[in-house]
Each structure stands twice: as structure tokens, then as C-alpha cells.
Design a protein that fits this description.
The protein is α/β, with parallel strands linked by helices. Helix content is 37%, strand content 17%. The strands form 2 sheets. A 6-stranded mixed sheet has the order 4-3-5-6-11-10, with helices on both faces. Strands 2-1-7-8-9 form a 5-stranded parallel sheet. α1 runs parallel beside α12 and α8 packs across α13. The model has no long low-confidence stretch (mean pLDDT 93).
Amino acid sequence: MRITGTAGPAMTEALQWLERIRTLPLQDKVRIMNVCGGHERSVTLSGMRSALPEQIEIIPGPGCPVCVCPEEDIYQAIQLAIHHDITLVAFGDMLRVPVNVAKGAIRSLAEARAAGADVRPIASPTEARQIAAQDPQRQVVFFAAGFETTTAPVAAMLVEGVPDNLSVLLSGRLTWPAVAMLLKSDDAGFDCLIAPGHVATVMGPEEWDFVPQGHGIPAAVAGFNTESLLAATYSVLRQHLEGRTFLDNCYAGVVRPGGNPDAQAQLTRAMNVGAANWRGIGEIPASGFFIHPDYAHSDARVRFPDYSADQRRRAGQMPPGCDCARVVLGRIYPNQCRLYGSACTPRHPIGPCMVSDEGACRIWLSSGVEYAA
């Protein structure tokens, strides 16, 4: 098998790392979890799994913010869109994520849009600000779901100031607490960790030191390109074989010690951190971003009625038959879900992992991976 998706010097470097991996004296299976939807996309599209020795198992983990966005937040956004004369904007993937509602009820922002609500996809907080500025008399709600790399620009927008008619419905999450939760469980499900490079760019690689220092598990920060991922794979495998664990930065050209202090300062100023619900997983301590009271005037939860009733907090229950929660936690592979590729497809998603380009189920099915009978 060969690695695809690279060319020239990058291809040469990737092949060199692959050859180094193949020379390692691996005997037993080694499970390596990645914590980034971008990583999973690169691993799958490049054919990296089939190129690696059979003892190496690459497991997709909780790296898709769309997949773990709690149902009550999506439901809140839908209700605001259909019950209030507003414009609701959200990152494109969020429009198609379904919630559990009675048959015939509106189950996604895309369906709300089809029913006449003013729902628009955007690609950045800047677009939300522009839409609000174009019509100062109309209320605009920005449904902002994402991890640190997405939440930091939202924080910057709030600190810089937003139009009076713009408010934020925030559903931000931190990545490391989900990994910490897995490591505290009876079976973490992995032997080594590849940490997300773009999160480390903002928050600093040191945020992942707890993995080797507190749990004795090899870890390496990687970027999205194949050579960085293979370098990180080689690093954690060598650590595993030699019985020494540390955090290796295999994305040093982008990830700097300490991360981005300015972005961190804006997050600290505009956000609080607390326990938060993850769809299919439940509440995880210190895992959620919440708008600081100093910016309550731009908080959609303060400005509009609250539709997120307690009964919607069913620990983020997935739709019947959907195994997205187990996929997100690395308990099963995407193609082991009962609905994969049959009832659940990118065109007609049942669970959130089939919606986003960072969702493992969508990545696998779009790459031609068939259901595992």
C-alpha cells in the first residue's frame, strides 16, 4: 500500500517516516488514538492505516465539535430560529445536525430554514458581525459551536465589541478534558495519543503534558499533513517500545511553547470555563466555555427565552440505533455502527458523526469504507 495526498519533498519525508515505523520491532498490538477530526480525515484519505504495520491500530477519538455539541444547544438554536423574528447564523456543518423530536417536528436548522426561518451558514465570526452591521434593526444570533481554535476568534470578537443587534449562542468545548475523562475510566481504549496541533497552536502543547506525566502514556502533537502524523506515530511507538514517555512536538513549525498568549488572554477575558454536557457522553468537568458575565449583553441566552428544558438534557442521547457516542469515545470504529451506510448516510444523516467533514463516520463512508459485518 502507498501513502497518497502528498507530493515532492513532503512525499519523500512521509515515506522516510513510514520506513522508520516499519523497522520498529513491534510484536503486540499498539492502539493510537487521534484527537482531531482533521487528523482522522488525513489518516483515512491518505491510506495511512493500510500502509502501517498490522500491529498498529489508529483509533479516531473525540475530535469533532459538531459530533459532541449537546442536543439541548441545537434545540435552543432551532427554537430561536422558528419562534423569533431573527437571523440565525452558524457554521455550515451545524445546520444539518439532527435532534430527537416527535415525528413531523423540525429536527435541524436546515429544516427550520426550509420552513421559512432565516438561517444562514457562515465560515467565520467576521461574517456574523457583517450580517448584523448590514441590518442594525434586525436581531442576529450567532450559534457558535466548536473547540478552542473556533472559540478563540469568538472571544476576540466579543472583546473587540459587536453590534448591539448581535448576540452569541455559545456551545464551546475544550478538547483535553474528554481525553482526561477517558484516561480516568477503567479502560481508556488506547496505548498512545496523537494530540491536536491546531488546538496546541492556541493553547500551547503543555496542555497535553498530563497524558505522559500523569498516566504514563506516550503522546505527540501533530499537524494535519501526513509527514507530521507519521512522525508523531513513530515518536509514540518508540516511546511505547522503550518504556519512556514524554510529550513530543512533531508540529514545531506551527506549535510554539506557551501557544498564543493573545488568544488565551481573550478567551480568559470573554469566557468562563466550567462543567459542560457532551452529546452521547454526558457532563465532563471543566470542559465548556461560557460567556463571561461582563459580556452578558451579547449572550443570546440572556437576551432571548430559554428553550433548553431539563428534559432535553438526556446526557446527550443519540437517536435510536445510533452509535455515534461509542465512535466518538473510540469504543468502536465508524463502520461498526448499526446504521452506518444504510439508514445513516451524509445525504440523510441520523447521527452527528455523519454530518460534519470532521465526523469519523462521514470521513470513512466518503472514503469508501464499507460496513463491517
